[in-house]
């Protein structure tokens, strides 16, 4: 979800994923610890964003998934 935007409000992500605050917070914390996401608080609202490192990691994961799909299709 964050790849398509500069930033997205925490509550929007929570509602779209249909998870609790605590579940999303735990996942965001893991992404922050890996330096893949940032959280900015503005007037009691939290905004989530991918960092440049997060965008690069996502691109790498997508590339790996594409290779897996290509291999599976070649093996048919």
TrEMBL record:
InterPro entries tied to this protein: WH-like_DNA-bd_sf, WH_DNA-bd_dom, WH_DNA-bd_sf
Domain Winged helix DNA-binding intervals: 1-69
Sections of the chain in a coiled coil: none
Pfam family, any one: HTH_34
Protein name (record): Winged helix DNA-binding domain-containing protein
Lineage: Bacteria, Bacillati, Actinomycetota, Actinomycetes, Kitasatosporales
């Amino acid at each position: 979800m964050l790849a398509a935007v500069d930033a997205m409000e925490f509550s929007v992500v929570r509602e779209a994923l249909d998870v609790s605050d605590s579940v999303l917070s735990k996942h965001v914390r893991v992404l922050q610890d890996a330096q893949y996401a940032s959280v900015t608080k503005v007037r009691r609202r939290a905004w989530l964003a991918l960092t440049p490192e997060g965008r690069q990691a996502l691109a790498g994961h997508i590339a790996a998934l594409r290779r897996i799909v290509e291999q599976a299709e070649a093996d048919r």
